[in-house]
Amino acid sequence: MTGRAFLCDKGAAASSGELLDGTFRLHYGQVDVGAMCLLGTFSQWVVVPEGSAVKIDDDLPLDVACLLACGVPTGWGSAVNVAEVGPGDVVVIYGVGGVGMNAVQGSALAGARTIVAVDPVPWKLERAKAFGAHHTFTAHEQAMEFLVEHTRGVLADKAIVIVGNVEAGVVAQAVDAVSKAGTVVLTGMSDPTEVPTIQLNGTFMAVYAKRLLTTLYGHCNPHVDIPKLAGLYRNGQLKLDELITARYQLADVNKGVPGPVERPEPARHPRVRALSRMTDRWPFLPSRRAACPGHRGRGNHRERAREGLRRSRRGRAPHRPFGARPGGGHRGHRDAFSRRRR
After folding, report:
1. Which are the contacts of 49, defined by CB distance < 8 A and separation ≥ 6?
2. Which pLDDT value is given to residue 311?
């Protein structure tokens, strides 16, 4: 027993949906169907392990109480349990969707002095103000400009990343937004089969003693924190009804949870965009990574050196190494060494 219920070993079958006794309780005809996280809450009837059930008061509306199962504890815990937001802190939250909004109100409940919300969707930013955000921005650059002025260059104490699809650039921006000894909490996730989502300069992190923490479920314990959050809701300190934007019948679940939205292609150098389209059709062409003119990848400096040599041989100044004298010889350690010998 370690007290870390969010890392319970019994959750090993959460993705396959096989119950603890090795059986499946959901079926489609003769086919066993796994219950997501051993729950399967989109089913009309479910069988769950006893440890997955948390008793709540009878008068608490179920359509509101269900929010306390995952999204609210994850966002709230990211701010309170992991980032350990305290009175007077300046907090930046990247992504204020259904989870990030609770990081906003968690920071407010913890006494943060300034809460900055960053999200590209304007209507989410408007709602974030009702949950406790003091300032909202659609881009990181705008938030940084505000932080520099607001804190006189000190920057934020805590940053929480809860975007829908984490990319390396967002994590790096959050690290840039915190001060010396600042803390960044990474809550959002992405496809684990894609490119790495954390690419940081270790020396920079060490010199400024910045911390990057990750979390699952906001480090919450369901049997402790769900009743606690329910009590805050009763006292009017935690907003749950305001998190609900629409209600659907169980038969209309596919309307409430639509398929993936096609994301626009990120801005790239024109040459890279052209080669991206070409490499999709002809895989034998150079990779997109190698094609990028500004990429500092392996071999790129050699290519620039060869290009400079080709230009010099086309009739411009004769090519010679840096420090070489027109009449021969080379200014450098060899001349100095020969003079010392003489």
Report:
1. 10, 19, 20, 38
2. 53
Tokens 């008793």 appear where? 55
Q: What is the pLDDT of residues 176-206, one digit of tens each?
A: 999 999 999 999 998 888 778 899 999 999 9
Strand order across the 135-137 sheet: 135-137, 114-118, 90-94, 156-161, 178-186, 211-214
User: What does the pLDDT read at residue 306?
Assistant: 54
Residue 213 near residue 183, CB atoms below 8 Å:
yes
Would you kindly state where each structural domain of the chain is located, as residue ranges? 5-53, 70-219, 269-295
Binned average pLDDT, 10 residues per bin, the chain of 342 residues: 74 82 88 87 85 90 92 97 98 97 98 98 96 98 97 97 93 97 95 84 95 96 94 96 90 76 45 36 36 42 52 48 43 42 43
Q: What is the DSSP string of 242-311?
A: GG------GGGHHHHS--PPPPPPPP--HHHHHHHHHHHH-TTSPPHHHH-TT---TTHHHHHHHHHHHH
What pLDDT shows up at residue 264?
46
Q: For the beta carbon of residue 183, count every other beta carbon within 10 angstroms.
A: 22
Widest CA span in the chain: 98
* Crossing angle of helices 100-109 and 122-130, rounded to 10°: 30
Residue given tokens 């230009």 in the structure block: 311
pLDDT in tens, 228-266: 999 999 999 999 999 998 888 888 888 887 765 554 444
Cα-based angle 261, 240, 243 (whole degrees, multiple of 5): 25
Q: Cα–Cα distance between 13 and 1 in angstroms, integer? A: 19
CATH superfamily of domain region 70-219: NAD(P)-binding Rossmann-like Domain (3.40.50.720)
322's tokens = 């840096």
Please tell me the distance from the alpha carbon of residue 56 to that of residue 5, in angstroms, as a whole number.
Answer: 18
- Give the C-alpha separation, 72 to 50, whole Å: 22
Residues in the chain: 342
Sign of dihedral through CA atoms 5, 10, 12, 16? negative
